[in-house]
Specification:
By secondary structure, the chain is mostly helical. It has a domain of about 180 residues: Hypothetical protein, domain 2 (Endonuclease III, domain 1, Orthogonal Bundle). About 55% of the residues lie in helices and about 0% in strands. The chain has 13 helices and two strands. Strands 1-2 form a two-stranded parallel sheet. Helix 11 packs across helix 12. The longest helix has 22 residues. The chain is globular. The protein starts with a helix and ends in a 10-residue tail after the last helix. The N terminus and C terminus are likely disordered. InterPro entries: Adenine_glyco (IPR005019), DNA_glycosylase (IPR011257). Keywords: Metal-binding, Zinc. It comes from Gossypium aridum (American cotton).
Length: about 270
């Protein structure tokens, strides 16, 4: 699947996220209403996080809805530096931490999260289109039917290790099994967080863990179901990428918008315990 196909499942999440930041042109009253809405949302978050830990102390300062500030002046997570590649900065600003509910996109992020182990996100993001082309836009039904010859061709043509290719094909079959049981991969994976993103309150990037008890429990269940390349560290990276957890630092300009997405998303009917 090319870029046009991908935009069909990325753009709804990103456009929804962007709508939280854009001021209504020429309307002071509209801007004020959005600021009041932010204050109300922040009060809800303060109540939700009260008493968790000292690091979870909520900042009550209202974040201005200012899209006029140049991108380079925006406060970002500290792992984004002046030397960071623009493709990585864009990924941080537009995708990381945004809740994703499209099965194909979730499949893609699971694969990319596994591929970046031993590498880095910048390198993987630069190969992202190759992964999409190699695995048919991450359509699980199509990938599940890849033959051994097709897998060998993908490995040689796109420079992806054959064991990784086989792992993606195996995981596509596991996703199909999950979809038959839960209705969608989305319902399965989001069921682990009760269909609501977790919003953390980290002030420093060295405090962000590489795995958590939640990623360990998800990994354990996925391994039990036959998924490959889904260790706790990979799963935690996937959770961050797919917005199951909002690990933007509280000083980052993306923390609040991602947190508001968690608050405003309509509730989903609970599923049986996993």
């Amino acid at each position: 699947m090319g870029n046009n196909g991908l935009s069909s499942y990325i753009e709804p999440s990103l456009s929804y996220s962007s709508s939280l930041l854009v001021e209504a042109p020429g309307s002071i009253a509209a801007v004020r209403r959005e600021q009041v809405a932010l204050q109300q949302a922040q009060r809800k978050m303060k109540i939700a996080h009260y008493g968790r830990s000292k690091s979870a102390k909520f900042e009550s300062k209202v974040v201005p809805l200012d899209n006029t500030k140049p991108a380079e002046e925006k406060k970002r997570c500290s792992f984004i530096t002046p030397n960071s590649d623009p493709i990585y900065v864009a990924y941080h600003d537009e995708e990381w931490g945004v809740p994703i509910h499209d099965d194909s996109m979730l499949f893609e992020l699971l694969v990319l999260s596994g591929a970046q182990v031993g590498s880095d996100w910048t390198s993987i993001l630069k190969k992202r289109q190759d992964f999409r082309d190699a695995f048919s836009g991450f359509d699980a039904e199509t990938v599940a039917n890849f033959t051994e010859k097709q897998m060998s061709t993908i490995s040689s043509e796109y420079g992806i290790d054959i064991s990784r290719v086989r792992g993606v094909v195996d995981n596509s079959n596991r996703i199909l099994e999950v979809k038959r049981e839960f209705g969608s991969f989305d319902k399965y994976i989001w069921g682990f967080v009760n269909h609501k993103p977790m919003s953390t309150q980290y002030k420093f990037d060295h405090k962000i863990p590489v795995k958590t008890s939640k990623s360990e429990s998800i990994s354990k269940d996925m391994v039990r179901r036959g998924f490959r390349f889904v260790g706790p560290t990979v799963v935690h990276s996937f959770m961050q990428a797919a917005g199951l957890t909002n690990d933007h630092l509280i000083t980052c300009h993306r923390h609040l918008p991602c947190a508001l997405l968690a608050i405003q998303r309509p509730p989903v009917h609970s599923l049986p315990d996993l």
